[in-house]
Amino acid sequence: MHIFEKNSTMKFANVTDDIAFRKIFGDENKKVVLISFLNAVLCLEGEHKITDLYFPNTYQLPKFRDGKSTILDVKATDESGRSFLVEMQVADINGFSKRVLYYTALGYVSQIDRGVFYDKLRPTIFIGILQFNMSNNDEYIHRHQILNVETGERLLMDMEFNFIELPKFKLELKDLNTVLEKWVYFIKEAEHLNIIPDNMDDKGLQTAFESANIQTWTKEELLAYDYSGMRETDERLRMEKGMEKGMEKGMEKGMEVGLEKGMEKGMEKGMEKGMEKGKLEIAQKMKLNGMPSSLILELTGLNI
Question: Per the confidence metrics, is the pTM higher than 0.85?
Answer without folding.
Answer: no
